[in-house]
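Sequence only, no structure available. Ideas?
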Amino acid sequence: MRAMDNYPTHELGPIKYRCGHTSPFGATILYDDVVNFSVFSRNATACELLLYHQGERDPFVVIPLSDEFKIGDVFSVIVYGFDYEEMEYAYRMDGPYDPQNGYLFDKTKVLLDPYAKMISGREIWGEPGEKRQRCKVIPEDFNWEGDKPLEIPLSDLVIYEAHVRGFTMGESSDMKYKGTFAGLLNKIDYLKELGVNCVELLPIFEFNEFGDSRVVDGTTLLNYWGYSTVGFFAPKAGYAASSPYGVAAEELKNVVKRFHEAGIEIILDVVFNHTAEGNEHGKYISFRGIDNTTYYLLTPDGFYFNFSGCGNTMNCNNAVVRNFILDCLRYWVSVYHIDGFRFDLASILSRDENGVPMSSPPLLEALAHDPVLGKTELIAEAWDAGGLYQVGSFPAWGRWAEWNGKYRDCLRRFVKSSAECGPEMLLRLQGSPDLYANRSAEASINFVTCHDGFTLADLVSYNVKHNKSNGEENRDGANDNNSWNCGVEGATTNKSVNALRRRQIKNAMTLLLLSRGVPMILAGDEFCNSQRGNNNAYCQDSPISWLDWSDLERNHDVFTFVKTLIAFRSEHPVLRRRDFYTGMNRSGYPELSFHGTKAWNLNQSKPFHTFGFMFAETRSDHGAQRDCFIYCGVNTYWKERTLELPVIPSSMQWHRVVYTASEVLADSVVRRGSIDLDPRSIMVLIAR
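Reply:
I predicted one. Tokens follow.
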């Protein structure tokens, strides 16, 4: 029932308004054209709500929110006659300007609502020129047809990290809506064929791709990755296939629903460690002008701590900011049905208001125990740019998983023939019990490559980074890549070098997909996608970063190889076991055992290039289809090696599953008690 006339109201032109509800924060449609606006500011002395006709320069109404509209530290107002399809809004705040004490109020600055569900002004990706950003109010209704987050057990996931734009933007993607949310739909069948059941998307919260843009050699470099958030509740409008307001929200929801229908989860890469407002010289966008001392970590003289490497650091364990982050994630799970989150530079989330690491950070504990997020995947990038490295020690409460950077570094070194990494490699294959003994193997997100660094093809093709096109004189990007070019730097027609590179790619993929823990694959690695040696393509909205789908045809044998291994992993629950058990199971064999050139004989404390490992899988212990043994023979030495196979029950026979030195995947019986491994090769066998 609409009973506006029963309440005292104010009137400005065509707009009527009255005191509002303090919660929820943001703009909430109450009914028809009635919207409640609520915004927090502890230190503001005045607040104005600005109402705009869509796209216009100046507001047509400015509503002053006097003390009548403030309860505690919250300004709120109910507006009647707000046409959310045709109107936009923003705020202005007044208060002290005292930079030394962190106060930066400026009543002339137009500010975005931190809780805005849609932001206008950047509907077309890469459109040049200054655009005024305003907030939009959007309805949340959508026909989900019974859909909900999939809640696949973390240990059963194979994660595929992808960039919305780069995944389908290249000419070779051969589709209508390139580089958009809608474009993802055209790759569902491909992802199902590959076998992945979880896609992790690089940031899709609204960001300004022109932040820090510059021209290098005639090419405009953009903020392509999107790790500089403008609106935390708003999907990136420039990722929508169509430009009208609100389309991005509905388009993204449809993507999530369709992916769920295909059995594929969606995880979002989220950035709560900093915002797009930058350092002391940055722009006023939102938090800086609303309540700078609440939202950011500040030094005693009012400057920004920079543990993010991006100019500022969010004050994540402040109660207000903590609730903001919780509200944001609950919103994405409940309104968009998102399945999980990967937290960029998550160690910042453990710092207190002085930047000091906390043993029990309130934010991380709240996220771990939040009822709405109870089945949501929580994955930490357990380090930050301030030197805090928490891999294996991230405060977890039994809920958090981590990008295992130690797994990445060890596997890279071992595959390129570092025998010293052999003993550590055994731990990484087990799910890193040295790091996660108090948790489980699924706490380890295992990966060889990710968006940040070389692709897998480049890892075996370049000894050093080649980032000159980034315009930073090759100073940017990591120098410690643990890469090896196999004899020639970059692209080559040398057949033997290219054959070795393919073998090394397959070697890395084999160890990754046979390791306990949760594997993550960088999009395109399964068909040898290259970034031409660029290991920091954050600014490359170009073919350097866009997947070249013609590589899929050229390297279809690698795709088939990876597809085979993913299917093999999904068929064998022993590979996905959560705990670190290696003792005897009902097979009468150790569930996981390690072997040298002689079966059962491996010195696990000394360096080695060559070894084998065997899983014993039973129906009764693991719910497998049948009893079997899985043996993987590994040779990272530059000469051929022979491995003696463990003796198994006489009723069983070894069959070859894959061999990285051969393009033939056909099942073949191994009739000898040993296998010969070519230089730098891996063979997987199954006994049944």
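The first strand starts at residue 10 and ends at 12.
Hope that gets you unstuck.
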